[in-house]
Every structure is written in structure tokens, then in C-alpha cells.
Amino acid sequence: MPITALYAGLLTALFMVLSLRVIALRRSSRVPIGDGGQALMLRRMRVQANFAEYVPLALILLGLAENLRVDALLLHGLGGLLLLGRLLHAFGMSQANETFAFRVAGVGATATVLILAAAACVYLGLRTPPLS
């Protein structure tokens, strides 16, 4: 599954950046657990957690779709849209004076990927005969 592997690698790099931002703020603020009552810490934690909540399912669906032989161009489109959506969401939510347009666009892109990949999996799952 080379296409899914490509996007899994790129998204993991983004997740590590989000994680390192939380770790750096924890160290500089001396907050070992929780948000320490800091709005910035809570915001960074939620950006990272939101990523961790949605990306694994999206990658699973992308991988299953690839295994079901969905067209490579569509898979790249979905993977690219997922990456863009997560970047937009992280950028939008990371701003102290948040511009909701980036956050909404990120959520919309991620939801679109989930819906389209799930639909492809259901459709092709029903049409593909099981292995004997």
C-alpha cells in the first residue's frame, strides 16, 4: 500500500511537530500533566488530540480503499486533502485569536476524506467477492 504509506509518513511528521509543540510548552511552563490552567497549553493539546482522534481512522480507510484497488489518483486526492485539512485545522486552532475559517476548512476537508473513503470501502466491499 504505497500510497497510504506515503500519507501515513507525511501525517506522522505533522503529528510529531504537534507533539513537540506540546512538549516544549510543558517544559517551559513546567506543567507536567493537564493544561495547568493555561489557554495556550489547552489549545495545543486539543490540536494534537484532534489529530490523534481523526487521522488513524482516515488512514485505515485509505489503506482499505487502496487494498480494494481504488484509483491511485483518487487515493492521492484523498491523502492530499487529509494532509491539507489537518494543516489548516492545526494552523487555525493554534492561533490565539482564532480565525475559524481555517479550522472549519480543516474539519470539512477531514470529514470529506472520511465520508468518501468510507463510501468507497462500502461500495467496493459489497462488490468484491471474498477471498476463498
Break the fold down into its secondary structure elements and pairings.
Layout: H1 2-29, H2 39-67, H3 72-94, H4 100-127
Helix pairs in contact: 1-2, 1-3, 2-3, 2-4, 3-4
What does this structure look like?
The protein has helices spanning 2-29, 39-67, 72-94, 100-127. The radius of gyration is 17 Å and the shape is elongated. With 132 residues, the protein is mainly α. The protein has a single domain (2-127), classed as Four Helix Bundle (Hemerythrin (Met), subunit A) (Up-down Bundle). The mean pLDDT is 94.
Summarize the structure.
82% of the residues lie in helices and 0% in strands.
What characteristics describe this protein?
mainly alpha, Four Helix Bundle (Hemerythrin (Met), subunit A), 4 helices, 0% strand
The name of the CATH topology is Four Helix Bundle (Hemerythrin (Met), subunit A)
Overall shape: elongated
Assign the CATH superfamily. Membrane associated eicosanoid/glutathione metabolism-like domain
Structural class: mainly alpha
What CATH first level would be assigned?
Answer: Mainly Alpha
Written as H for each helix and E for each strand, in order along the chain, the element string is HHHH
Strand-residue proportion: under 5%
Q: What is the helix tally? A: 4
Low-confidence stretches: none
